[in-house]
Amino acid sequence: MKQNLIFLGAPGSGKGTQSAKLVESKGYEHVSTGNLLRAEIQKESELGKKVKEVMANGQLVSDELVVELLKTNLNLESKAYIFDGYPRNIDQAKTLEDILSGFPYLAVYFKIDTEKMVERLTNRRTTKDGKYIYNLKTNPPKQPGICDVTGEELVQRKDDTEAVVRSRMEVFNSTMNEVLEYYSEANKLVKVDADQSMQVVYDAIIKKIEQ
Ligand code: AMP
Fold it and tell me: If you measure from the C-alpha of residue 1 to the centroid of ligand 1, how many angstroms do you get, rounded to a whole number?
């Protein structure tokens, strides 16, 4: 059975972009807790209303809310997933360990410098559902403001403004070390240098996950 992948990395480190490539080339399912939460906000569901402000400020949504949403979107018996944006802290890492019990997985850490991430995020544009991701400087759409694949208008996420990006970085830096240690001690962690072109990062991931 193909192993599941847990993508770890700061916002803007390329997890979503690489997930999209791997879904297309290798048949993984992509599950992004950020995308699931944004969909709830768009639907104006009860959950969406609860999380809207927390997300707009770049803070973390409570573990309980996120895990419920995650679980209802998984079918581990028949699919191999890329977990993108989950886990965000050590408690979530332990919860995911339970969810995945018996299913093989590997954690992939996307290493990148903070200032580069700010640059990437403030230039990021996506489709409304977050599925297709562009960068105004390094990966612009063929027609400005329009998705190459779906033809829909691209948007800037509310939390991709510089002030919110900086608080998201702080949240990330304060919670991720423990998570990295957790997977490292379990011998389940590989690292890629995410500060390279999309294709080079992709090749590096393939090499690590297929070795
Ligand atoms: P992302 O799309 O992964 O950058 O996530 C966007 C926002 O959604 C984060 O800043 C959090 O507010 C929230 N979020 C996404 N995943 C999680 C998670 N695993 N735990 C808590 N909050 C999350």
Answer: 29
Q: What is the pLDDT of residue 1?
A: 66
Q: Pick the atom of ligand 1 nearest to 70's CA.
A: 19
Q: What is the mean pLDDT of the chain?
A: 94
Residue nearest to atom 11 of ligand 1 (CA): 60
pLDDT in tens, 130-179: 999 999 999 999 999 999 999 999 999 989 999 999 998 888 889 999 99
pLDDT, one tens digit per residue, over 80-136 is: 999 999 999 999 999 999 999 989 999 999 998 888 888 889 999 999 999 999 999
What distance in Å separates the CA atoms of residue 138 and residue 198, rounded to the nearest whole number?
A: 9
* CA 92 to ligand 1 centroid distance, Å: 12
Q: Name the CA dihedral angle for 21, 28, 7, 14, rounded to a multiple of 10 degrees.
A: 10
Atom of ligand 1 nearest to the CA of 130: 2
For ligand 1, say whether the CB of 54 is within 6 Å of any of its atoms: yes
